[in-house]
Design brief:
38% strand, 194 residues, single chain, mainly beta, 5-stranded antiparallel sheet
Length: 194
Amino acid sequence: MIQTCRSLILILVFVLTACGPGDSEQIPDDNINPDQPNEKPLPAGVAEGFIQGEPWKFRSGRAIIFQSGRRPVLEVVAYSTSLEDPCEARTGFTTVVRMLVTPEEDLFTIGKDPFDIYPNLFFIDPSKFRGDPRYSLAANNGRIQVVAIRRDVVIVRVEAAYTGPGNLGRTEVSGQIAVPLCGSSRYTLGTQFE
């Protein structure tokens, strides 16, 4: 009887190890860049950070798709203020994180090519801007992941920072942003992202 139990246990252990997932069957994480497998995933919590040393947290925003030359561009604008209708709101009164990428569900690296204007992320504080462009800071490192583009919503995850010259204060953002896709953009998508 003891011999039979040992045999069954050994067979069970053999079957479990033989049928378990091997190294070649890892489940891919859509938040990992296959070119950089050791990168950590982008944060999924509500986006927050600092703009020129002041705390910033995502409250509302909008997305549009427009043409720049022959290239389509997805612009995602995240506000630190809750707006009733962000698609119709005129801004210039609140701190903003503005992202520009191609409209694809993909992971983009900021600062990879300094001569390419997409992808890019800008930190804007209108209370300090007053015509001085150094207060509109372009992130010089980080990543933007477009998680979803649908007829009514765009979801991005971001982790980016400005670490350039000047004593302008801590400037960084990380987390997830979900905003409405505004204007004619929702009609020009066709069925590509449904």
